[in-house]
Design a protein that fits this description.
By secondary structure, the chain is α+β, with helices and mostly antiparallel strands. Helix content is about 45%, strand content about 15%. The chain has 2 domains: about 5-215, D-3-phosphoglycerate dehydrogenase, domain 3 (60s Ribosomal Protein L30, Chain: A, 2-Layer Sandwich), CATH 3.30.1330; about 235-520, 2-methylcitrate dehydratase PrpD. It has helices spanning about 5-10, 20-40, 65-70, 85-90, 165-170, 200-205, 235-245, 250-260, 265-290, 305-310, 320-335, 350-365, 365-385, 390-395, 400-415, 420-430, 450-470, 480-490, 510-525, and strands at about 15, 40-50, 95-100, 110-115, 120-130, 135-140, 145, 150-160, 175-185, 185-195, 210-215, 340. The relative contact order is 0.12.
């Protein structure tokens, strides 16, 4: 069955703190699910990364420890205390250890959590981060499972290879699916629901003979699946046919797509998107007003554009200036551990929001027009998520700033009043020029060259949208461009995929910066 990624679940979001959605947001979500499974106060945890994986070289610098600690401690990702989770764990007397180990993995971003509760329970989870905050818990106590945080879930553990499935089903409220995994006289039953599980429905399950443990696992994604309706399109070609037959722009198509996926009304969709836009706008304003954080490379720079313009050092009052300032402001908010929206990732969060704000201001666009622009961007992002997804550890920065450039280009065409085909072509042109882009963060911080790549993606989006609306030919269709991203990533060495082992990350200056930051952090924490 084809999976349809959501605009809110997979593209515009999560709302988070931290440098990396793959490292910080996904690890937070994995830890939260782990705590629901444990279902008692945490005593201690051992977090392991495979030495041959992408997380081993930089898990601390890219915020994995912040995310996991925060999730284990029960903090929301937007909580200001996420900035100091290690201290909070110490104050609570909770022992959280990190270790580089060797264990079988199926993905470069694999983590293994062994968590022990205050009342004696212990569970081991293996999970993978899939990019942009997406994840999958794949194994619990040696039993296979697939949990992505997009359903309300019930986990049942039985000491039997022949669990009472029919008895369980007979007392359950309506459910979406039942998964069963057995090994060595141990069975794990995973039941997914599209609605909250009533408390009174749990007691009859607990009373069934053979059920040893019951855990309710709450969804961590914003939209719970299982309420879908039939999609009028499922590919770029069918979207274009549908849009042209019904005289719809890409923003309208994005709204229809998310409505079919989520079951939400138009008003609910607007409310959710407005909230996300408000957070993005706040991160722009916060960045321009000034941010400060010890553990980063770059100081505030976003204000320098306005100052240089006023002094006549650069061309005054241009949209280019606005784009650079806005994108920089979002990236500075991210690097200062302020609340941002991954769009589609934290490492590429500046391009879409920064350029939409600049173009919307230039055109005096209405709030409704801006919302439509974000739905247009989200639709392109959904097609990208159907393909390679957003994991730089698998595909390099072509799936981060490459994807955000394509999303932003479609959004600008939407603001221009262009047709769906023009928006899709603009996205194609933008992504074409960013295929092969490597991910090589200096000193393992998501700042350099990430800031420049975000600004380049935003400028690329503006020029691509302008070309498309002027009649330039994209030549290569968007779906073929996205497929090419996957093809190229298979040819890209792992050292250039967010490991800190290639590109600018291994230059003399980068290595010196990494040592300086490491020494600074050692002095600060001692």
């Amino acid at each position: 069955m084809k999976r349809f990624p959501g605009i809110f679940n997979d593209v515009i979001g999560p709302v988070m703190r931290g440098p990396s959605s793959s490292h910080t947001a996904a690890s937070w979500r994995i830890a939260r699910i782990g705590m629901d499974i444990l279902n008692e106060p945490l005593k201690k945890a051992l977090i392991e990364f495979d030495r041959d994986g992408a997380w081993a070289p930089n898990y601390r610098e890219q915020g994995t420890t912040i995310g996991i600690d925060g999730g284990l401690l029960g903090l929301e990702m937007t909580d200001d205390r996420m900035k100091d989770t290690e201290k909070l764990a110490s104050e609570k007397g909770i022992d959280i250890q990190y270790k580089i180990s060797s264990f079988p993995t199926s993905h470069v971003n694999t983590v293994r959590l062994t968590i022990e509760g205050a009342y004696g329970k212990s569970h081991q989870l293996t999970a993978v981060s899939l990019g942009g905050g997406a994840f999958e818990v794949q194994n619990i106590n040696g039993l296979k499972v697939s949990m992505c945080g997009d359903y309300q879930e019930l986990l049942l553990r039985c000491h039997s290879e022949n669990p009472p499935i029919s008895d369980i089903k007979s007392v359950l409220p309506p459910y979406h699916s039942v998964g069963v995994s057995s090994e060595s006289n141990e069975t794990l039953i995973n039941i997914k629901f599209s609605k909250p599980i009533p408390h009174e429905a749990i007691e009859p399950v607990k009373a069934i003979q053979g059920i040893d443990e019951v855990a309710i696992v709450d969804p961590v994604l914003p939209v719970v699946l299982g309420n879908e309706s039939e999609f009028p399109f499922d590919s770029v070609d069918t979207l274009l046919s549908y849009a042209e037959a019904n005289d719809l722009d890409l923003g309208a198509c994005g709204r229809i797509y998310e409505k079919c996926l989520s079951g939400l009304s138009d008003d609910e969709l607007n409310v959710r998107m407005k909230k996300l836009i408000g957070i993005i706008e706040h991160s722009i304003q916060g960045g321009l007003s000034g941010t400060d954080y010890e553990d980063r490379i770059l100081p505030q720079q976003s204000h320098l554009i306005g100052e240089a313009s006023k002094k006549g050092k650069i061309l005054p009052n241009t949209i280019v200036n606005s784009i650079i300032a806005n994108v920089s402001a979002i990236m500075e908010s991210k690097s200062a551990m302020e609340v941002v929206v991954a769009n589609p990732t934290a490492g590429s969060c500046g391009a879409v929001g920064g350029v939409i704000r600049a173009v919307a201001d230039e055109m005096n666009a209405s709030h409704e027009d801006v919302i439509d622009a974000y739905f247009a961007a989200g639709m392109v992002g959904a097609f990208f998520a159907m393909g390679p997804g957003f994991s730089a550890e698998e595909h390099g920065c072509q799936v981060e700033c490459g994807a955000s450039g394509g999303m932003a280009a479609a959004a600008i065409v939407q603001l221009y009043g262009g047709a769906a085909r023009q928006a899709i072509d603009a996205a194609s042109m933008a992504i074409q020029s960013m295929i092969g882009l490597i991910c090589d963060p200096v000193a393992d911080r998501v700042e350099v060259p990430c800031l420049g790549k975000n600004i380049s993606a935003a400028m690329n989006a503006l020029t691509s949208a302008t070309m498309s609306c002027s009649g330039f030919n994209a030549v290569i269709p968007l779906d073929e461009v996205i497929q090419t991203v996957s093809t190229v990533s298979a040819q890209m060495p792992s050292c250039n995929k967010c490991t800190g082992r290639g590109g600018l990350a291994v230059t003399k200056t980068a290595c010196q910066l990494k040592e300086q930051l490491k020494l600074k952090n050692t002095v600060t924490t001692s």
